Amino acid sequence: MDALHSAQSWLTPYATVQNLLSGEMSAISWAQWPNVLLLWGVILNAIGKARLKRQQSM
What we know:
The chain crosses the membrane at residues 30-48. Keywords: Membrane, Transmembrane, Transmembrane helix. The chain is mainly alpha-helical and 58 residues long. It is built from three helices and no strands. The longest helix has 31 residues, at 27-57.
C-alpha cells in the first residue's frame, strides 16, 4: 500500500492540491503539477474524445 500512497500524489489532483494548500511545496511537489494536468486535462479528455468519435462513426 505504500507504493500506491506515494504514486497518489503523482496521479490524483486531490493529493496534489493538498500539497499546495499545506504550504509545503518542494521541487518535487511542483513537478507533480504538470504530470497531473497532463493526465487529467489532456490524456483523459483525448481518450473520451476518441471514444465519442468512434461511437459516432458506427
